[in-house]
Specification:
By secondary structure, the chain is an alpha+beta fold. Helices cover 39% and strands 20% of the residues. It folds into 3 domains: 3-292, no CATH class; 301-412, no CATH class; 420-477, Arc Repressor Mutant, subunit A (Orthogonal Bundle). α2 (165-181) runs antiparallel to α3. The chain is elongated.
């Protein structure tokens, strides 16, 4: 490998509060343009911002969940720049005194654990949103929606520890999972609750100094983040191979073309003229308050994965899926409490149940099949009442109708045939109907047995026990 990729991420997270950071306007998504605004978030003369305490406590929770030190002294600053969707002409953010510092997030890449350091987590308000007239039938005009202005954000800034687009994606997936577990944010990327800027550079392998970086702005899906970084790495590599210099600039990603393009040139550093906000007093956070918030931090994804492997003996791959969301992990544990067969439950959840949820874009928290209902179906398999293949259809019916497994089995006559003479009759018929395959099996071609078992299952409409069928076929063919 000739070059090494260096990536640092800045993730903007909308904190899950009912109201904005400095006023009582709703922070909800989807309101009519400029409906959720007031003189405070619009920066009218003479108004005074008041910090949302709930926002501060949730932000502290995010810091503790990512192993950051919650700094005892915090201060808001004014970040000065002009943009049409910034009504005050400055953004209230943090500069010299952020809320959290020196944290980390562990990721797993190809079975190996890697620690990604966090530089800081700081609090800030969101800006508004520009809507261009081409999307509204008014080409040449632009409109501003200030509903997002003042929506509470935390910016999570990583060190440049990531070395590939795959690592960047793994980091974001883990961060999103932590934020959801702690209920700090809903992390809805389609609504802008989680947005990412990526600083990307390449350097010759072995070189200590970083290369010239470009900033990829406003990436809002894991897929696009990975593809944008991969494209940018390839672009920078080609430039260096051709003897060209890389420009420090801000770039955007065109998802339709799969390319990044230049948005604006960027000098070594912006002069935002930060200065302490005179309307907001410094925040002093004592140890007692920090410890009070620490007690609200739940078991986190990494801890839960380790516990699932240790307590339930399920593979690492299974735990990765089952702990990807808190609601999924809770569903699994509720099932295990009722039916102590973790791997069986894991298989059904990861396969058939998640497949049904994916079809309609649903979430496990809203699953029409409750943990107890799934367990009742699994007990029917265990007792031999239905076969595993029949159970797949039963689960689909349960998902659609919310009926119990036993009622579906009764209504449709799906009970497994347990009468050995009835099964023997079907086996005899299959043997007579497939003489060539029978001879092949006698000749040592054992794979043919699977075909014959399948024919018996087909003839019985899946109501026979495959193990019993297998045994009978071997006995009868000899």
């Amino acid at each position: 490998m000739k070059y090494e990729t260096v990536i640092g991420l800045e993730v903007h997270v909308q904190i899950k509060t009912k109201t904005k950071i400095f006023c009582s306007c709703p922070a909800e998504f989807g309101a009519r343009p400029n409906e959720n605004t007031c003189p405070i978030c619009l920066g009218m003369p003479g108004v005074l911002p008041v910090l949302n305490k709930r926002f501060l406590e949730l932000s502290m929770k995010a810091c503790l969940a990512t192993h950051c030190t919650v700094e005892p002294m915090n201060r808001f600053a004014r970040k000065n720049y002009f943009y049409p969707d910034l009504p005050k002409g400055y953004q209230i953010s943090q500069f010299e005194f952020p809320l959290g510092t020196n944290g980390y997030i562990n990721i797993n890449i190809n079975g190996a654990k890697k620690r990604i350091r966090l530089t800081r987590i700081h609090m800030e308000e969101d800006a508004g949103k520009l809507i261009h007239g081409e999307n509204l039938g008014s080409p040449g005009k632009s409109y501003v929606d200030f509903n997002r202005t003042g929506v509470p954000l935390c910016e999570v800034v990583s060190e440049p520890d990531l070395r590939s687009a795959e690592e960047a994606r793994a980091y974001l997936v883990e961060l999103k999972s932590i934020l959801e577990y702690t209920e700090v944010s809903d992390c809805n990327m389609e609504e802008g609750s989680l947005r990412c800027d990526a600083n990307v550079s390449v350097r010759p392998v072995g070189q200590k100094e970083f290369g010239t970086r470009t900033e990829l702005k406003n990436l809002n899906s894991f897929k696009f983040i990975q593809k944008a970084i991969e494209y940018e790495v390839a672009r920078q590599t080609a430039l260096l191979d051709g003897g060209d210099a890389i420009k420090q600039e801000t770039r955007l990603y065109d998802a339709d073309r799969g390319e990044t393009f230049s948005m604006r040139s960027k000098e070594e550093a912006h002069d935002y003229r930060y200065f302490p906000d005179p309307d907001l007093v410094p925040i002093k956070i004592d140890k007692a308050w920090v410890e009070k918030i620490r007690k609200t931090v739940p078991e986190l994804p990494e801890q839960k994965r380790e516990r699932f492997i240790k307590n339930y003996g399920i593979p690492e791959y299974d735990t990765g899926i089952l702990t990807s969301s808190k609601s999924l992990a809770d569903y699994f544990e509720q099932c295990v409490a009722l039916f102590p067969h973790p791997k069986t439950i894991s298989n059904w959840m990861m396969g058939d149940l998640l497949r049904e949820l994916k079809k309609d874009g649903g979430d496990i928290a809203d699953c029409p099949v409750s943990p107890s209902a799934l367990v009742d179906m699994l007990k029917l398999i265990e007792s031999g009442t239905i076969s595993g293949s029949i159970a797949k259809g039963v689960l689909e019916e349960m998902y659609r109708t919310q009926k119990s497994a036993s009622s579906i089995v009764e209504e449709k006559g799906l009970k497994q045939i347990t009468d050995s003479s009835a099964i023997e009759k079907i086996v005899d018929e299959v043997i007579q109907a497939n003489p060539r395959q029978v001879e092949e099996f006698k000749g040592g071609k054992e794979k043919v047995l699977g075909f014959l078992v399948g024919q018996v299952m087909k003839a019985s409409k899946g109501k026979t026990n495959p193990g019993m069928v297998n045994k009978l076929l071997k006995e009868k063919i000899g």
